[in-house]
Amino acid sequence: MDLDVGRAHGARIYDYILGGKDNYEPDRAAGEESLEVWPALRIHMQANRTFMHRAARFLAAECGIRQFLDIGTGIPTAPNLHEVVQAVAPDSRVVYVDNDPVVLAHARALMSSTREGRTDYIHGDMRDPEAILAAPQLRQTLDLNRPIGLMLIAMLHFIEDDAEALRVARHVIDILPPGSYFAATIATDDFAPEPLAKVRDLYHSHGETLRWRTKAQAEQFFEGLELEEPGLVQMHKWRPDPIHIGKIDDADIAMYGAVGRKP
Question: pLDDT by residue (tens digit) across 106-146?
């Protein structure tokens, strides 16, 4: 499988900014230049990761979800989704999806399941949800007749076209059974438009996509779903850990986050 290290990739930029080692010179260049124009980027990315942890724990502990589909999982960074949910319910099952060959190379780390549970990995692109849903790994691991927690964390901004982004998300949501949940973080420049315009331009100059969306646009991804409290908010405000309340500046966060239940 071809590994294109000549251009930056969102998952590897993310890895670099969070202190990982699975990145290449174009990823590091894009990350450093982005940090120069928006120093809060590291805080923002850390907040995205902790949102995933809180949402996953909420779904496992409070909603009884035992099956998860994580599209755009990124390079493994402990704790991974399966480690979070299997700490709550050891029998939880997780299917990871990503299109980066670097993630594929580390897929074994994503499949270190508990004995009671199970994890699997699909090398696939979120822009082709039909292929993801048809993958044998999905149906061997998850029961599509039982509720599933769909995670699209920091992914939709990699699709520039608004209609396509909605189509991709809704296609998967539509096949989920009632009682399933959709958790997502959606990039926005509502709170720091000037530096984030520069970040967008930098991503584009390095060959990577970045699309900001307004709150009204973000709400469209959750139409027809029952939003869990506190609804669609900046992701650091979604059921924050008490020790973090009031410690993050709103201008340092460029994503909305929410969890919705499919009735």
Answer: 777 777 889 999 999 999 999 999 999 999 999 999 999 99
The answer to whether the beta carbons of residues 164 and 127 sit under 8 Å apart is: yes
Q: Compute the C-alpha angle 165/150/225, nearest 5°.
A: 75
Q: Which residues contact 81 (CB under 8 A, 6 or more apart)?
A: 52, 56, 68, 70, 73, 94, 96, 151
Find the angle CA(209)-CA(119)-CA(104) to the nearest 5 degrees: 40
By C-alpha distance, which of 85, 94, 100, 145 is closest to 121? 94
* Alpha helical stretches, state H, 89-175: 101-105, 129-134, 136-141, 162-175
- Tell me how far the alpha carbon of residue 44 is from its chain's centroid: 13
> Which residue carries 């930098």 as its tokens?
202
CB contact burial 136-166 (16+ within 10 A = b; e otherwise): ebbeebbeeeebbbbbbbbbbbbbeeeeebb
Q: CB of 51 within 8 A of CB of 235? A: yes
Helix (H) or strand (E) holding 254: none
For the ranges 2-16, 18-32, 137-151, the maximum mean pLDDT occurs at 137-151
pLDDT exceeds cutoff 90 at 5: no
